[in-house]
Amino acid sequence: MAKAVLTISSKNYGAWALRGWLMAKLAGLEFTEKVISPDDPAMKAEMLLLSSSMLVPSLLHDGIKVWDTLAIGEYLNEIKPKAQLLPADAKARAHCRAICGEMHSGFASLRGSLPMNIKGKFPNFKVWSRAQADIDRVKEIWTECLSTYKGPFLFGKQPTLADAMYAPVVARFLSYDIPMDKVCAAYAKHIMALPAMQEWVTAALAEPDEIDELDAEF
């Protein structure tokens, strides 16, 4: 019987929920899902992009409750060190933490104008200038990491916390038809091919259309 419970929100819209869920999957943690109702205030807060530090996702494991996605990632790295969610090399590990932190606290314009919507397809989507600056920065991060650590993931041959943090951005780029060069497109393909991502997307596509709060975002 699983010792861990991960509380998440919508799989179609919940970018932070995806990050925490994917971290747990990459760690190899056995867990059960607790999906909160669309009417729950925490669900609404995540859907309306109010905070990256709401109690969604949250992890309950062996009597320990951890919330905030970065804290969940660090905790998983401690209890599942063999999963190497953070790189072994100190320099690479610092770099990984830095770009995770940048995603955690930044990119507000990208979040606001391109909310995650796995079911949605928006060809030729018009991106406003501030969001474009965020998009360009994300591509710069990906290109630098893939060049430095030789891919196919941001820090080498296996996915880390950084890939979990940027996975919702991959989904956004695909939904909103954001142009990518060959390097970034190949990275996006590797992320979407992860078994855990395929599992998440399948569940997102099967999710009922019952969340009205996002109507204002489009």
Kindly describe this structure:
With 218 residues, this protein is α+β, with helices and mostly antiparallel strands. It is 51% helix and 8% strand. It is built from 9 helices and 4 strands; from the N terminus they run βαβαββααααααα. It has helices at 15-27, 41-47, 69-79, 90-105, 108-113, 129-149, 161-175, 182-193, 195-205, and strands spanning 4-8, 31-35, 58-61, 64-67. A 4-stranded mixed β-sheet has the order 2-1-3-4, with helices on one face. A hairpin with a 2-residue loop joins β3 and β4 (64-67). α1 packs parallel to α3 and α1 (15-27) crosses α7. It starts with a strand and ends in a 13-residue tail after the last helix. Residues 212-218 have low confidence and may be disordered.
Percentage of residues assigned to helices:
40-55%
Mean pLDDT over all positions: 90
> What percentage of amino acids are in beta strands?
5-15%
H-E order: EHEHEEHHHHHHH
Rg on CA atoms, Å: 16 Å
How many individual helices?
9
- The strand line-up of the biggest sheet is 2-1-3-4
Low-confidence segments: 212-218
Number of strands: 4
From the spread of the alpha carbons, the general shape counts as globular
Q: How far from one another are the termini?
A: 42 Å
Largest sheet: 4 strands, mixed
Q: What would you call the structural class?
A: alpha+beta
